[in-house]
Amino acid sequence: MHVPDGFIDAPVSAVTGVVAAGAVAVSLRGARRELDERTAPLAGLVAAFIFAVQMLNFPVAAGTSGHLLGGALAAILVGPYTGVLCVSVVLLMQGVLFADGGLTALGVNITDMALVTTVVAYAIFRTIVKLAPRRRRTVTVASFVAALVSVPAAAVAFTAIYALGGTADVAIGKVFAAMVGVHVLIGIGEAAITALTVGAVVAVRPDLVYGARGVTARPLEIRDSPLAPAAPGAVARAEAPAAEPATATSEAPETSATSATREPAAVPRRSGRRVWLAGLAAALLCAGVVSFYASASPDGLEKVAHDKGIDAKEEDHATKDSPLADYGVKDISDARLSGGLAGVIGVGATLAVGSGVFIVVRRRRATAESGRG
Predict the structure, then answer these.
(1) 177 vs 372: which has the higher pLDDT
(2) Rounded distance between C-alpha atoms, residue 163 and residue 18, angstroms
(3) What confidence score (pLDDT) does residue 238 get?
(4) CA-based angle 32:44:71, to the nearest 5?
């Protein structure tokens, strides 16, 4: 759904640019509250993974394909504010390096693909999680529904933007019907990818999934010993068995070993290195190998634009001569090698830029906390 230059006129493009800049500014502040020592290293990886999976166009109808937008996935994994930043980084890298999505339309794309999808998806996700039973399966189901709805929501948002600033004389009703119709189908693919990814991470490290906090973790229980009054602040772990009642013949004095009231054992922080490495390997595999087998059909917006005449005034991309334009490395004739190498470069560049942004945000949080201390 990358909007190229020329689809939207200059005034509306400028307004959406302001909206996008405001969303990024607010998200930078909000991400300071979301990112901690566990999620900060993963945020850059999420951006790189979204970049990689967006290269995997899948067929949805005759002559039409779709790809992941990523707002739902990012919001659920690392938080809504950080999610907006993740998708924005992806869109920036695609526009600058790969001539995908117009530079003058960057505000439109961030507003539509980063802001709308993330806000809609996370609102739906949190609603389902609050109403449904607190289980890991709930997180996966909520991820599926949130991602499914977020894609046609983005199609509706594009239609609204086009109604305000479209450069071609096309009936808005036709644009709305075509965009929503095809993106409902694309939403099914988005939902499947999002649910599978979130479910995989939740299965092995639920503590690393922002949206799963407070859902999959068992609360600690406070249990009183039948033998003696509980010490102040004493807490028993949730999984500790209930104490056996004392028998009438028991004459042994109470010891720390027989007391049912125990201090909780220190739980060491688990490193997210394995998850990070597995995610990076998956991203490189998708971008460097699997992308070669992606559908070559135009995506939903491209197809609708061609069929309805929205692309009548499309302009050449400002970076059309980039060495990586159209997701291929210039001067490499082998299509598989060219596309795979471009994908790997894109994953690396997105990971580097995204990680840099989130490291700075995390450090600012740490500085602010130390200042208050």
Answers:
(1) 177
(2) 18
(3) 42
(4) 80
